[in-house]
């Protein structure tokens, strides 16, 4: 089957865009951060562990990412309080969000 919609050809610019990537400290998430940064976006790395996030930031800097457009914030997606705190911190810094990549794995969900 074919999904209709815009195709990503790799030449698009993300200059001036604001992005959040969850699970950004390794694997697919870290590579998405790298690509968005290369395309010009300001990227928030939403990581459960600041220590692991800082390691990812160092690795991204080592491969040429512009560190001034990478911001590390802590968030545990299994905690509503942590998510609220993350959102508050983001809203203090930004007035818009252009790109949200929900990449983090979650092992359980709370009862409502």
UniProtKB/TrEMBL annotation:
GO function term, MF aspect, one: oxidoreductase activity
Classification via InterPro entries: NAD(P)-bd_dom_sf, SDR_fam
Keyword annotations from UniProtKB, A to Z: Oxidoreductase
Name the record gives this protein: Uncharacterized protein
Organism this protein belongs to: Romanomermis culicivorax
């Amino acid at each position: 089957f074919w999904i209709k919609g815009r195709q990503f050809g790799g030449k698009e610019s993300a200059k001036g865009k604001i992005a959040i990537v969850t699970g950004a400290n390794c694997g697919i998430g870290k590579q998405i951060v790298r690509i968005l940064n290369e395309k010009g976006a300001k990227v928030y790395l939403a990581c459960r562990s600041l220590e692991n996030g800082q390691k990812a930031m160092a690795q991204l800097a080592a491969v040429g990412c512009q560190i001034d457009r990478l911001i590390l914030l802590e968030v545990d997606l299994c905690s509503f309080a942590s998510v609220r705190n993350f959102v508050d911190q983001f809203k203090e810094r930004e007035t818009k969000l252009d790109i949200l990549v929900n990449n983090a794995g979650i092992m359980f969900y709370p009862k409502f």
